[in-house]
Structure formats: C-alpha cells, structure tokens
Amino acid sequence: MSAHTAASQVVHESMFDSVLARLDAAVKAMNLSEEVAQVLRNPQKLVKVSLPVMMDSGKVQIFEGYRCVHSTHLGPSKGGIRYAMDVNQDEVMALAAWMSFKCAVANLPYGGGKGGVKCDPRKMSVGELERLTRAYAKSMRDVFGVNKDIPAPDMGTSGREMAWILDELNKIHGEDAPGVITGKPIALGGSLGRDAATGRGVMVSTLCALNKMGIDPKKATAAVQGFGNVGSHTARLLSEKGIKICAIGDHTATFYNEKGIDIHAALEYVKTSGGVLKGFKGGVEIKPNELLTAKVDVLVPAALQNVITEEVAHNIHAKLIVEGANGPTTPEADSILQEKNIIVVPDILANGGGVTVSYFEWVQNKMGYYWTENEVNEKHDLSMETAFNNVWTNAHEYKTTMRLGAYITALKKIEQGVKLKGFY
Ligand code: GLU
Predict the structure, then answer these.
(1) Crossing angle for the helix pair 229-240 and 197-213, nearest 10 degrees?
(2) Which site from 52, 334, 406, 409 is most exposed, i.e. has the minimal number of CB atoms within 10 Å?
(3) Do residues 204 and 172 both lie within one domain?
(4) From residue 221, how far is each of 207, 294, 303, 352 by CA, in Å?
(5) Ramachandran angles phi, psi of 10, nearest 5°
(6) Residues 74-121: pLDDT tens digits?
(7) How many domains does the chain have?
(8) Looking at the domain assignment, is residue 235 inside a domain?
(9) Cα 196 → chain centroid
(10) Atom of ligand 1 nearest to the CA of 102
C-alpha cells in the first residue's frame, strides 16, 4: 500500500489509495456523511478469473482477468475493459471508482465498473486475442448485462474486442442484445461519433476552461501526450479549433515543433507506420518528459497514469492541464500544481466524453433507432459543457480546485442514490 519516503511526504503507490486520498479530501470539504463515504470506499463487487488460452504455439497460457463493480447507486455499472501488463486488482478497483465519479459528473444514469486482463496485446496474434477475449466474456457472463454492468473499450482494446464479446454473450443468452456492451463497430449497433468522443470531450473541456481563463484558443499553444484513440483525436480537434499543437508523442517517440505540428500529417503517418509516431518527420525529437514541461499554454496528458509526479509538476510551464488519461497526476503533484495556480481539468470531467457517447449508444440500442453524427456530437457537446459548468460552480462555491469540485459534484449525486436506496 502506501510507502512513506519522509514523515511528511506520502507516496501513493496504490492507485486505489490515490482515489481514496481524493475521495477523503472531498468528503471533508463537503461534510459528506460517514455512512455514504464508507459505502464508496468499498467496491460492491470484485471478480477475478483465470483464463486458459491456446496460443498459436500449441501451448496453453493462463491469463488473469478482472471485473470490478464499484457502485450501482445511480444505475447499472459502466466502464471499459483494459488489456495491459500492469492490470491488477488495485488498478481495476481504482479505475472502477473513477467510473462511478465520472458517470455522476457527466450526469449519466450509471454507476461505475472496470475490467481488465493482464496481457500484452501488442505481442499477441489476432487469433490469440480473439480466444482470450471470448474466454473473458464467457467467464463474465453473470457479471455483464444490459441493465446490470455494461463494458466498453479502454486502453489496449477497441471495437474489435467489443464485437467478439457481444457475439459470445449473444450466443450464451441466445438473443441479440447490443446494449450489453458499447464502443461497438457501427455495423453491430455502435454509435456514430463514439470513436472520437473521448478526444472530443477533452477538446470541449479545453475550450470551456480557456474561455473562463480569458485565453483566445487561436492564440493558444498545446502539448498532447499520447497518440492513441484519445490523444490523436484530441490533437486533431484542438488544432481544428485553431490551437497550435507544439508537441505530440507516444510510447515510441516524442516530437516538438515551435511553429506547430501538422496533425493531419501525423495522422496520415501513423496509418503507414503500424500506428506509431516513431520516424515521423514533422518536428524535432525530444525526451518524453520534455513534452510535459514544454513552454505551452495547455498540457493534455492522454496516455498513462501517474506521469505528472511532484518532480514533473515543479517544472510544468502550462497554465492549464486537461486530463485525457485516467489518473495522470499523482495526489502529491496536485498540491504543487495548486500552489503554482495551474488549472487542472480532472480526468473524471475531462475524459467523460467517451462514456457520454457510450450512454448515447446504449440509448440508441434500446430504442432501435439511430442518430446522425451531428445529433450525437451536439448532444455530447451540450452535456460536456453542462458538466464543466457544474464542476466550475462547485469548485468556486467550495473555494477549491476543479478536481475536488468534480468529486463534490459527483458525491452530491451519488449521495442521493445511496440514501434513497437505503441500507440493510
Ligand atoms: N474506458 C472509457 C473510460 O475510461 C470509456 C468507458 C465507457 O464508455 O463505458 O471512460
């Protein structure tokens, strides 16, 4: 759990501890009842499965799979499935709790959940991934349900895995229930606009924050860490709004260009390079941490957790941080950013665009009637702006940061769900 480096300084090695640290700070600030706080400190359900998969070599490999349902007080639990080597119980618990708060901030009728499999999808063949995904879906047949727990893509998964999971669940239940999972390919009941939605939400949050700060987007500069689904759409959409993107990077390479990087050229490049930025010629190559401390107005960490540490925070030049990733800032770094008057639009607000359009996908599946991309985007933008303004108002009312303001916004809603449903 937590390790003490010095008497006064606590390093949160556990991600769930990081969630609890923020939760407890919000509980104190808003004087939330201890009963409700206790309920939210303990996830409702945690399932661990062992998945024996036949590899292409002819040997069987055992994979660990997880699903955590943090809360169902405001509706069925909602949240993605992550494929990565660092997936573990602590991480899925943290990510599931964040989903509860994210859905409440976005005003969706959902609780929060998250799942994952410990694996390296980049080192697996398509056949191996399909067998692993179907095994995971089958193991979670009693957890997932259209009005129960609704998974979606997360790091390392995409529409392809969602299609396999849908097919496996449909076979088990003997009926087509597309609303049991979101982030599906369009042909299987996915929603237009879902693919770009998380990046779109980051863009809307950035524009809302710049507006409050009195900064003209056309005169602003930005650095975006991560060029996967979230980072690439964010960089594209911000540049379409006139923001100059001076730095981009992924796990293979990081680039800087004072004159602004041509994001469309970068998008074209990754189509030819196997999805990675390595070898891109649109800027000079820099170290990954130099992106975080670049002299830009806006910093968007849209890759991994815990990248903005205390040390990095001391060297950040941006005036605004918009968290595209889940948990990119450590609690220790939070206080330094606050001292430096850097505004942080937290993950549970900024990256809520993905789950918002997942909700629209679920609604369309239930109706059996589908909206145009413009209709989806319009509804999304309005929903994100409302969420941003609610958080901004709470942060001001409680004289606190946007992060605590977001937790307070979420807790006010979840508190009603917990109290109205009651206890045994
Ligand atoms: N995995 C995404 C997230 O962390 C999306 C979840 C969803 O659409 O349910 O927000």
Answers:
(1) 50
(2) 52
(3) no
(4) 12, 10, 19, 23
(5) -110, 125
(6) 999 999 999 999 999 999 999 999 999 999 999 999 999 999 999 999
(7) 2
(8) yes
(9) 13
(10) 10
